[in-house]
Design goal:
Length: about 140
């Protein structure tokens, strides 16, 4: 008795089951890889990242800090964190080119000393994240 006579089905039908098995294994692998990638890359979190940038100018001679909007792509509001604590420092004037300054009492840095970090925190749709940080170049805690 030969080996081929023990196989069930004719020659064309015998390859169908292994091909389907390989296709199913590849499909399962691709789906599993997509699910793992979604968790690892945090795809589908639903939140828009804050997209904004600011320039910070610190004048150590008169102890003045000015923050200017250079990009306000999708930001709703800006506050200061870290050693500073100021809410919605730009208010309705959150547009490119607009500035706020300690000299104009838009915010104060009285709790900040040289080397302390000030965080510029942006909000988009109620979700906050630190957009930019800067280190103090002068001691504002001595101001009256």
């Amino acid at each position: 008795m030969t080996f081929t006579s023990k196989l069930v089905g004719d020659e064309d039908e015998r390859a169908v089951s292994p091909v389907i098995g390989v296709i199913l294994m590849v499909a399962i692998t691709v789906i599993l890889a997509a699910v793992i990638a979604a968790f690892v890359l945090d795809i589908g979190s639903g939140g828009n990242p804050v997209q904004a940038s600011f320039s910070v100018d610190q004048d150590t001679s008169d102890e003045n800090t000015t923050i200017t909007v250079t990009n306000a792509a999708n930001i709703d509001s800006v506050r200061l964190g870290g050693c500073a604590d100021a809410d919605d420092i730009f208010g309705d004037d959150l547009r490119v080119g607009n500035s706020v300054s300690t000299a104009d009492d838009d915010f104060d840095l009285d709790d900040c000393s040289t080397g302390d970090t000030v965080n510029i925190v942006g909000s988009v749709g109620g979700s906050e994240s630190i957009v930019q940080s800067f280190d103090m170049e002068y001691d504002a805690s001595n101001d009256d």
